[in-house]
Amino acid sequence: MRRMRLAVFDCDGTLVDSQAAIVRIMGAAFVAEGHPAPAEAEIRRSIGLPLTHAMALLAPGADEARIRRLAEGYRDIARAAQHQRDHHEPLFEGTRETLDQLARAGWMLAVATGKGRHGLISTLTRHDLLERFLSLHTADDGPGKPDPAILRDAMAFAGAAPEDTVMIGDTSFDMRMAANAGVRGLGVAWGYHPRAELMASGAHAVADTYPHLAELLLAEPA
Hints:
The chain is 46% helix and 11% strand. By secondary structure, it is of the alpha/beta class. It has a 6-stranded parallel sheet with strand order 3-2-1-4-5-6. The mean pLDDT is 93.
């Protein structure tokens, strides 16, 4: 009997390169609240966390009300940006081809991301990828990474066992979520956290390119 294998993907930094857009929107949210824009490197470090957690890191010492306003401001600016023609979150090279390869090989595909549902659907629709995924699990659906809740939801929806599930992501938060859910974490080297940090956070391997990612997954026994 064929195994029901599930590949769960992060979005930002894994499927799409949203760094420039996130940096721009984050800076605008901080300026609107009377703060200087955080450094780009600091913003990169926060990508993948729940938005309020990211704001707390980027605005140390801010009280809960200010963190909430920063998060709300970010969401408002991001929603407006997603409808602008120059909003740019390009796919990483090989994304579409690898998703198709995995689907043909019988893998189920899902997304577990710190992105909000509205933003995720907008991004996937723009790239004609929405129908590729069995289910979408976002920051709106439960505790954020590295809490395993949204990854466990993806597994439950697909009926996949932990040993048949792989979490694919570019940050230490993804790898720690995988470990917390009892599944293998597969890091990608083209995202926002370095290879050494991915490995230290529990990654079983790190793919250098999307073809390499397909090779690692398709080498597994059916």
